[in-house]
Design a protein that fits this description.
Strand content: 35-45%
Helix content: 25-40%
Number of strands: 19
Largest sheet: 5 strands, antiparallel
Oligomer: single chain
Shape: flat
Order of helices and strands: HEEEEEEEEEEEEEEEEEEEHHHH
Length: 364
């Protein structure tokens, strides 16, 4: 009888201990072992629980040396069987964009979760950890210009002109906006369009504008480049085409798109203002496209030196004035002390002090 009682107690405690067990873990993985420079790849992170998740997962944004990390915290829930046991799972992912060739390490993650133990319904806080792993980032393939290297799923070009290109005059400023939309890459990775210089106009460029167009599934971007053509000659001219190329990692191929060449007609302009004034105005607003430093920029700025010299001279005069005031004040107090020491008041005070000291000695 006692033996059966011991057996029931043992079974009860074994069942109780197993009922309080939290069976949960997390994994991070990627299907890529090797990627190209700037090629985005997805890292999938999954958290598993033999019961359920009482609260949303909490995980920090991560930083990786040599890569930009884009996190997508929207989770996908499902049920999976692992080692013949069913688990509830929550999945989220990162998209990594390496900008340095070599080994790239995705770090170990700590995920905060609230999971009820088996046989219970109240969630308990737990930290799930994933293992770190390394992938290889290959450099730009030989034969391709590193400056023009871009990895994307698809690229589209748009062109906008501020004026009718068939109704132009000398002295007009024709503004051209080139918009590049790229799917599957960061806005900062989008290459600038190759704008060819022309002999009938000066070209001025503005700083490009970048826009992040990511959605719930991928990273996308837009780049807008603005060019101003100052038309300096009359006649019929051709603005060369603009070409963009990119590598599609999913298809393993290079693709190209281009904006066509444009024919323009520039007519005489008897009311034209000075081209020099127009150039100066554009130079003040935008850096000159492919222009070298002018002689004025290379020359030493004597006006600035003179201005700083005057500031230094004024500072010296102020310090000299302060020094003179300090000397005069100090001299005033020294003379006042000497006058006091030679006065009757000084000797009277000294005599009274000696008298007080003698009185004190008599009392002692």
């Amino acid at each position: 009888m006692v033996r059966f009682l011991y057996i029931w107690i043992l079974v009860f405690f074994t069942f109780s201990l197993s009922a309080q067990k939290i069976d949960a873990f997390a994994k991070a993985s990627t299907s890529k072992k090797r990627v190209l420079l700037e090629q985005g790849f997805r890292v999938k992170v999954k958290a598993y629980s033999s019961t359920w998740f009482a609260k949303p997962l909490v995980f920090d944004n991560i930083q990786m040396e040599g890569a930009f990390v884009q996190s997508f915290k929207r989770t996908l829930s499902s049920m999976e069987t692992v080692n013949k046991k069913k688990y509830a799972s929550l999945e989220f992912y990162y998209i990594i964009f390496p900008y340095q060739a070599g080994e790239l390490t995705f770090p170990a993650l700590e995920i905060k979760a609230s999971i009820p133990p088996e046989g219970d319904y109240k969630g308990k806080d737990i930290i799930l950890k994933t293992d770190a792993f390394t992938i290889i980032v290959e450099d730009v393939p030989k034969g391709y210009d590193e400056e023009r290297w871009m990895v994307a799923n698809d690229v589209r070009l748009k062109n906008f002109w501020s004026e009718d290109i068939n109704a132009l005059k000398i002295g007009d400023v024709l503004i051209r906006k080139v918009t590049t939309n790229a799917n599957g890459t960061l806005p900062s990775f989008i290459d600038a369009p190759e704008v060819t210089e022309v002999d009938f106009a000066s070209i001025y460029s503005q700083e490009p504008e970048f826009t992040d167009l990511r959605d719930d599934h991928s990273v996308n971007g837009k780049r807008v480049d603005t060019y101003s053509y100052l038309l300096e000659e009359e006649g019929e001219f051709t603005i060369p085409p603009i070409e963009v190329s990119w590598y599609n990692p999913a298809l393993g191929k290079f693709y190209k798109r281009e904006l066509p060449e444009y024919k323009i007609l520039v007519s005489p302009n008897p009311e034209m203002a000075s081209l020099h004034q127009l150039r100066d105005s554009l130079n003040a607003l935008n850096p000159v496209f492919n222009q070298e430093m002018t002689d004025a920029e290379e020359a030493f700025d004597w006006n600035k030196l003179l201005r700083y010299g005057l500031y230094l001279l004024v500072l010296i005069f102020i310090l000299f004035g302060v020094w003179k005031v300090v000397i005069r004040v100090k001299k005033y107090f020294v003379l006042k002390k000497i006058a006091y020491q030679n006065s009757e008041t000084f000797w009277f005070d000294k005599m009274m002090k000696q008298k007080d000291e003698k009185s004190l000695l008599v009392q002692l």
